[in-house]
Predict the structure.
Amino acid sequence: MEGTMRKIIGILFFLLALPVYAVNDAELEKCREYTDPSVRGKCVQMYKRTDTRAASASCKKNLECWSQRYREQAEKYCGIAFERRAASSRLWAQHWDGQDFDQVRWLDRGKGVMVYFERESNVVLQCIFFPHAPARVRVSLAAP
């Protein structure tokens, strides 16, 4: 009995030492596109894999790669936020016309947070995008 308990405790320590990776909101959002539960499950498992994590970490070091990876989600959620502002403000409605954000820069490189922006003649439309919480964007109008 004592030997069995030691084996169980040994197995538990082994399992606790294995790396467990969480899947963030942006990755879950991509997996939710699949209606088949088994395919959705495979998608989530793919994002938990070590090689997928390594590729993501490598991409995160490069603004072009990182911004392209999240551009579609950024345009979706930034557009929704701008439309809401435009619906309640004449100033915002005057400047928002469903533009695509053609430029991007880092806001916080370590966290992967980017600012997508579009320069107009007299204003800059900006959207702060958080890849790990894609629906949580901050939009603003600023002087050029």
About this structure: Helices lie at 2-17, 25-31, 37-48, 50-60, 63-88, 90-95. The longest strand covers residues 113-119. The first helix runs from residue 2 to 17.
